[in-house]
Q: What sequence folds into this?
């Protein structure tokens, strides 16, 4: 059976600027790239406005990482299947 994905992101997927200049640590660069994913077998689900909840879930993670404010993340933590830090996996 086919599987359909909805993927959303927050952060900056670009680590290098013009002439391969490293952007990490410069003003305005966000050191996190956060990706949210919803998997479904029903293609119609991908058109539902309720998918905007993924934006809020990602925002809650982002707020905890960047500002140290964990109240939104803590209120929703049972809604996340997993939160991975890829830098800690190696």
A:
């Amino acid at each position: 059976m086919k599987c359909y994905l909805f993927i959303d992101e927050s952060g900056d997927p670009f680590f290098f600027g013009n002439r391969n200049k490293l952007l990490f640590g410069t003003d305005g660069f966000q050191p996190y790239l956060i990706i949210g994913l919803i998997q479904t077998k029903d293609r119609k689900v991908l058109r539902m406005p309720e998918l905007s909840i993924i934006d809020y879930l990602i925002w809650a993670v982002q707020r905890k990482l960047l500002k140290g404010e964990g109240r939104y993340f803590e209120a929703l933590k049972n809604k996340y299947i997993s939160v991975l830090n890829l830098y800690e996996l190696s």
Summary: The chain is about 25% helix and 20% strand.
